[in-house]
Amino acid sequence: MKLKKPNAFSIISFFIIITLVFCKTVSAGNPIGETADSNYILSNELSTTDNKMNISALESTAHTDKTSSSIWKSRKFKTQIKGLSLGDVDGDSRNETVFINRKKIFIYRYSSGRFEKIREIQGKNYDNFISVDVADINNNGKSEIFVTNLSGNDRLRSFVLEWNGTKFKKIVDKANWYYRILNESSHGHNILLGQKRGVNRIFFKGIYELKWNKGKYAPADRQIVPKWMNVYSFNYGDVLNNGQKVIIAFTHDDYVRILDKDGQEEWTSSERYGGSATYLEDFSESDSSKNKRTDDPKAMNRIYLPQRLHIVDLYKDGKKEVVVVRNVDAAGRVFARLRTFKSGHIECLIWDNFGLYQKWKTREISGHISDYVIGDIDNDGQDELVFSVVAKTGSVFGKARSFIVSQGIN
Ligand SMILES: [Ca+2]
Ligand SMILES: [Ca+2]
Ligand SMILES: [Ca+2]
């Protein structure tokens, strides 16, 4: 049998078929290619070491002429950081950085230019960590880690961890307390505040200073504050720099208010500050729900936790500054139930006769700032402004992304 010689047509057909088969193979392999690609990007980001850079960080006003300040940014964590705090949790005289997502506690240390993992502690499935604070309240040279935990979304099962030489042990477990530490910068020592959750109300009446007594954090001094405040909404100190302590607090709609010692309103900001993504659900018609905005019925069952209000003498000149975050809601807070932030920054305010005025602010950062503290994160003896940024919240489109920023103050 004579073999037919290939003609031009059959050669072209052959190449068309080969091309089609090749394209099909590639397109079938495409999802794998994408995964490999995004894996590469992810691993690349994870392997990126912490970068330190000197850039113009503080946007100054007429009060100061700061032009540059040292900024450090951690790698991105594939999670939503909900809170952070600093303290020496293992008693080695160096500060650790402790931060939380919904169910995990991250303990890291920034030392000698590295942000290294010390421990990550996984919570249980039904855990919902809502705040973290670090301080040595029992005075043994090791700071405790106070985690407010809303288990199953309706019951507080807060706990306290302390390093026992081999592990972070729960020295308190399943406590019905919302915890908040007011830092020593304004009070001379750290103050642990607690407020209970009631059966039918999110915040039970009575906010107490909890003091270490016979192996327990026991309620001691009841805080004299107006009823509309909860354990997270206020701080107190010499904000007016006249030697008198005043209360500074977030109102329910996130204005900053100063009350004198008789509880009378001294000043309220003309603009909103704060803005948090952490909320509690209110299933009841309790007292606390009556105090909320009534113009949006859907907002009735969601209480957003206030952000921190730091009172601190940043420049060691005997004058107290107020450090506060300002997250910008993409919806302008019209839809109070649902919050989506587009950006945020932190402001340093100081009292000046008529009110609190801005001394400086950080750059505007995309996403939102979930928590912020002032402390020595890198163990060089100088305090920094340290904050967690949620660059992306988790959704069906992908995992959340967060990072930690430290910014020099002086
Ligand atoms: Ca330490
Ligand atoms: Ca301790
Ligand atoms: Ca430092």
Summary, kept brief:
The chain has three helices and 30 strands.
Low-confidence stretches: 19-56, 61-68, 286-290, 292-299
* Bound ligands: calcium ion
Number of helices: 3
Mean pLDDT: 83
N-end to C-end Cα span:
93 Å
Number of DSSP strand runs: 30
State the shape.
globular
Largest sheet: 6 strands, antiparallel
Which percent band covers the strand fraction? 35-45%
Main structural class = mainly beta
Q: Measured on Cα atoms, how large is the radius of gyration? A: 26 Å
- Give the helix proportion (percent range): 10-25%
Descriptive notes:
Helices cover 12% and strands 44% of the residues. The protein is mainly beta. The strands form seven sheets. Strands 2, 23, 24, 25, 26 and 27 form a six-stranded antiparallel sheet that branches. Strand 25 and strand 26 form a beta hairpin. 36% of the residues are buried. Residues 376-378, 380, 382, 384 line the site of one calcium ion.
List keywords for this structure.
five-stranded antiparallel β-sheet, mainly beta, 410 residues, single chain
Write the layout of secondary structure elements.
Layout: H1 8-47, E1 51-55, E2 58-60, E3 69-73, E4 83-87, E5 96-100, E6 104-111, E7 114-122, E8 129-135, E9 144-151, E10 155-156, E11 158-163, E12 168-175, E13 178-182, H2 184-187, E14 191-195, E15 207-213, E16 216-222, E17 234-237, E18 246-250, E19 255-259, E20 265-272, E21 279-281, H3 287-290, E22 302-304, E23 310-312, E24 321-329, E25 341-351, E26 356-362, E27 365-366, E28 368-375, E29 384-392, E30 401-408
Antiparallel strand pairs: 1-3, 2-26, 3-30, 4-5, 5-6, 6-7, 8-9, 9-10, 9-11, 11-12, 13-14, 14-15, 15-16, 17-18, 18-19, 19-20, 21-22, 23-24, 24-25, 25-26, 25-27, 28-29, 29-30
The protein binds calcium ion (3 copies).
